[in-house]
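Table S2 (continued). Query chain:
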Amino acid sequence: MGAAAAGVGNSEMAYVLATGELWYQVPGTIRLELTGTLAPFASAKDIALAVAGRLGTDFAEYKSIEFVGKAAEMLSISSRMVLSNMSVELGAKFGLFPVDGKTIDYLGSIGIDHISPFAADADATYEAEYRLDVSDLEPMAAAPHAVGNVRPIKDLAGVPINQAFLGSCTNGRLEDLRAAAQILEGKKVAPSVRLLVYPASGRVLREAMAEGVAQVLAAAGAVICPPSCGACFGGGGGILAPGETCVSTTNRNFKGRMGSPDSSIYLASPASVAASALKGALCDPRRVS
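Corresponding output:
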C-alpha cells in the first residue's frame, strides 16, 4: 500500500506502556527485482520461500525490501501482501511495493481515495540489489524448523501429515482460499488429516461464502474456523500434539510454534497445502490438478 508497517511484540508493548514511545531507526533499502512470469501452481508464497532459501533469513536484517520488476507488477494486491508479510522472515523491517493502479483500485474499493501513484526516485540508491526470475519457480516448502530450510515440495513428497492449515495473515485471503478450492472441489480430504481454514478477516469469510468457495472447502472436509491467527503462534484451534506434522500457509515453522516442541511444521502455498490434505502427505499440487 506504499505505507510502512511494523509489528509490536510483547517487550515493545511493555516499553510503550512504560514510556509512551518507541525507538526506530530509518532502515536502508534493498532492491529485489522480480522478472519473468509465474508458472501454474507457483505463487507469491513460493517466491518468498525461494528468496528465503537462496538469500537466507537475515540478508535484509532491519532493512526495507523494495519489490519491483514486471513480475512484481503482475502480482495481485493479495499476493503483494504475502511478500510484504514474509519480508519479516527475511529479517526486514518493511516490505514495500510501488503504488500503482492496482493499489489505487484496491484502496478505492475500501473507501480510501485521493491517492496518486508513486515509486522510488529515479536516482534512488540501495544498499544491495538482487534479481529473481520467477519463470522456472516450482512449488516450494520450508522444512522444520527454519523458514530458510527450503526445497521444492516435490523433493519432500510422501512425508505423512496430520494437519493442513490454510489461512492466517500470510495466506488467508480470498485468492488463497480460491486456490485451495480449485484443487479440492469434488474431492475429499484424506481421513487421517485435519484441514483447518482460517480466513484472514470477516470480510474474506463473507466473500468466500457468497462466492461458494467456503462451501467447496467444507464439502471437501475442511473445518471453517473463525477469522483469526488460529494455531499459528500456539493459540486457538489446531494445536499440534507430540509427534504430529502440519503443512501450513503461515509465516513461521519454528520448533514448538504450533504446540508441542516434538511436532513438525512445513510451510507451503495454499495450493500445496490443499494437495497435501488430499493425499495425507506432502504433495506437489501439480500432481493432483
